Amino acid sequence: MKIKLYLLSIALPIIIYSCERSIDMKLPYSGDKIVVNAVMKSDSMLIARITRSLPPEDDGRTTSYDSTNARELKTVDAEVYEDGVFIEKLQPKFIFGTKYYISAHLFKKQKKYSIKASSPGLATVVAEDVIPENTSFSVVKTDKVSLNDGEFIRIILEINDPFDRKNFYRVRLFPGQPNGKISPYPGAFTAQGLFAENNLLNLFGNTAKKQAFFSDDLFNGKKIMITLLTGFNGSFKNVVEVAALSQPAFQYLNAKFRIDDNYGNPFVEPVNVYNNIVGGYGIFCGMNIQRQIAE
Amino acid sequence: MAQYIHFLTNNATTLPTDLWVPSTDKVKPMLSEQWAIGLTKTMYNEKIEISLEGYLKKMNGVIEYLDGAGYLNSAIEKWDNKVEAGKGKSMGMELLLKKEFGKTTGWVGYTLSKSTRKFPTINSGKEFYFKFDRRHTFVIVALHQFNQNLEVSASWQFQTGTPFTLPTAQYESTNGQSPFEIPYEFPYNLLFNYQSRNTFRLLNYHRLDAGITWKKQKKYGERSWNLGAYNVYNRKNPFYYYLDSEFKNNRGLKGVSILPFVPSISYRIKF
Fold first, then answer.
1. In whole angstroms, what is the distance from residue B92 CA to residue B115 CA?
2. Torsion angle, CA of A125/A37/B70/B257, rounded to 10 degrees?
3. Do A268 and B68 touch (CB under 8 A)?
4. How far apart are CA A254 and CA B126, in angstroms?
5. Residue A84 touches chain B, beta carbons under 8 Å
């Protein structure tokens, strides 16, 4: 018995000590850079958030550490240009306690905008993009269907894709509630694309998602019908949102959505989100949102 | 050569999550061509053998998970929608020195290798190191027989660390909403920036194993006692790694090793 205890007292510390090892590995840091997050919308002021990057301590989701203050920049000089002509300097303003940089001008579709942001000690960053043209879409039909796994609201949309340019889309669905109001949060839905020629095209897979992103690669210049299926919760009224995205907006928001959708899964390949801020990080892009009630 | 099953590995974790998957109508069989040239020579009355081999393998149709994809992230979506086919290249040389006669026998092996992958969209179309790319592998195995009853053995192996993807910065993101809209339900808004896929190297792997065996001839056959030790100098080779998210100002990787110094004893009867 004594021998066993001796053996155990030697073996246990070795095993426990051996389990975890802190590796003294110097992690890389690409340096402090300006971060611009600004999405332009048609006939709206620009509301930009301009901050700085930090070393990748964590993803800000798993700890109580709030790095918001560390990301803030005290002084920012942000200029905006329309079709290459200076229009204004963005002015700082606190909205619900967070600092933004806001324009006085309303931004217009199909104009090329650029932003130049600088802050002492950091490299100046620039970016440019356009707000795309409106999407022509309509809700063709809304009905309730019973499937094996329950009752669903089926909404059929028709999108007229312009042939003269490459188009990018984001579709969201805001479900109605039994009290007659529309939820401000997007709901999950599955979507299938159907050409006017009745060729079934599975654009989105069978998984219910809260956003569907797609380009017109497979149907450029055609009229397509998309069927959305969402769970029936007692309301026949839903709001369908179709946003025309610029290419940078499409690449950024699509990648960001995938990251959020996969959050917490350690087996997902890291995603390097699209970035069009030259010399920094973030996104400066345009989108044109339209909504219609489906009931 | 055509290969109808594919090796599908995940770069997001160092845990063994590799899969073998079949070819489908979307994922075509892998085609490869392989070239090898070797030279063998025996010396000192054939007591020592030395061999040198070089190889080059080009593969077309290897697969990798797309950015943001991985297994377990959707049970419904088909796996072949989450991968992309591309090209792979492996090359290297192997040197082997063997001694098979005498009281002391053993072998020494060294491999210099490089393995890369290239895909149309993954890693922005740029070539990157394969997950199992190891630049150097060195193995030495020795066995000495003192007499008919007693022998000792030892082996030491060294492998360069494998490539790994690490973030190089974190920054704020947006969901495209203005602050006046009702907040998007996903409240977290930080993104990692990655320089490239598999840019960094994990720690080198090495360990020493040793054993001693006493044999004795008995009427019924042979019995032997063996005392062995795995990982003699208790090298903590991490089995998997993770970015420590518990501390604020000291960025660091943590590794978990699961096989420390492990002694063993065995008794064997041969009849």
1. 9
2. 70
3. yes
4. 21
5. no
Contact list, A73 vs chain B (CB under 8 Å) = none
What 8-state DSSP symbol labels residue A188?
P
Averaged pLDDT of chain B: 87
Q: Which long-range contacts (CB under 8 A, 24 or more apart) does A8-16 make?
A: A14/B234, A14/B260, A14/B261, A15/B260
Residues 6+ apart with CB under 8 A from A45: A102, A103, A104, A105, A106, A107
Q: Which residues contact A120 (CB under 8 A, 6 or more apart)?
A: A75
Scanning every residue of chain B, which has its alpha carbon at the shortest distance from the alpha carbon of A187?
B185
Q: Would you say A211 and A168 are in contact if contact means Cβ atoms under 8 Å apart?
A: no
The number of beta carbons lying within 10 Å of the beta carbon of residue B46 is 9
Which tens digit of pLDDT belongs to each residue from B112-148?
A: 999 999 999 888 889 999 999 999 999 999 999 999 8
- Which residues numbered 117-146 in A keep a CB inside 8 Å of some CB on B? none
Lowest mean pLDDT among A90-99, B51-60, B194-203, B220-229: B194-203
Rounded-to-integer distance, Cα B114 and Cα A196, Å: 51
ipTM: 0.85
Name the residue with tokens 């796994």. A149
Task: Give the CA distances from residue B108 to residues B103, B129, B140, B210, in Å, rounded to whole numbers and listed in that order.
Answer: 16, 27, 4, 16
Cross-strand pairs, A20: B256
pLDDT given for residue B91 in this prediction: 97
Q: Residue A261: helix, strand or coil by DSSP?
A: helix
How confident is the prediction for chain A on average, in pLDDT? 83
Smallest CA–CA distance, residue B168 to chain A, in Å, is: 5
Closest by Cβ to A272, choosing from B77, B194, B260: B194
Closest residue in B to A100 (Cα–Cα): B179
In terms of CA atoms, which chain B residue is nearest residue A32? Answer: B169
Note whether B76 contacts A: Cβ–Cβ < 8 A.
yes
The CA angle A145-A151-A155, to the nearest 5 degrees, is 50
